[in-house]
Amino acid sequence: MMYAREREFVLEQLAASEVRLLGLVEGLTPAQWSFREGPERWSIAEIVEHLVVFEGFIISAVTNALQGPTESEKMTRAGAKEPLVLGLAESRATKFKAREATRPIGRWSEPDDSVADFRKARARTIAFAAETECDLRGHFFPHIAFGDLDCYQWLVVLGQHTFRHCLQVEEVFKDERFPG
User: Fold this and answer.
1) In a domain? residue 180
2) What digits encode the pLDDT tens for the residues 30-56?
3) Range of the domain at 75
4) Contact yes or no for 91/26 (Cβ under 8 A)
5) Which run of H or of E encompasses 20?
6) CATH no. for residue 39?
7) What is the DSSP letter of 81?
8) What angle is formed at CA 81 by the lines to CA 78 and CA 82, rounded to 5 degrees?
9) H helices present in 26-141, as ranges
């Protein structure tokens, strides 16, 4: 069960990061949508695709983790990871390699479709966060760099992750070759 302040924080993070992302991608031309800064960099289309897939992946993992028993022995270490989770968006100097399952592969050919699916995925996440009465703090699964995070922390990660990729979109905009 989430405390009211935790639920409020998660819902604010999810809503604010959605608004920010949608504001950044609104009205982009096809050339802007598909522009890449370099061969190893993602386009804005790929960033949004990753966000949609990542969101579904994490909510599925949270749901699966909640089916198992609580892992109270991990709860004492979870608090030390709060700063990592809360600093995820602003720590762009630390690069993470996305899980294979969440990497962009061209799932959507139309920007409107990927944006619509992001909105749907985020709406499901917000509904889950608003309604769940599960013991999110007692269930865990591992982050690729941080190790075990509890399911509440994973909901925070979803907002932070979106904010992090908003910063990436803004970096793409700053590239001198970005189409005008």
Assistant:
1) no
2) 999 999 999 989 999 999 999 999 999
3) 4-174
4) no
5) helix 4-25
6) 1.20.120.450
7) G
8) 100
9) 30-34, 44-67, 72-78, 82-86, 111-131
